[in-house]
Amino acid sequence: MNGIYETLFSKLGNDATLQTLLGGTGGDKKIYPITATVRTALPAVKISVEAGESEVGFNINRPSVEVMVVSTAGATELGGISNRID
User: Which of 3, 4, 35, 44 is buried most deeply by CB count within 10 Å?
Assistant: First the structure.
């Protein structure tokens, strides 16, 4: 699952438009693990990738990806960030 997490982090962290919306910097991409308990300046994105089993019965791993957008500014900011992630 590390490969998927790293790819997702890299993709989001290197998206210039998303970084502008988040107020990210070279030192802080504003993308954190969902389990992070450190207080951060908002807005921010939290991500998680967990292993899962296939629903079709084959011996295939099916990872689950969770993306959470956190903001105090309201629906307009959340919508812009969410749309960019989509």
Answer: 44
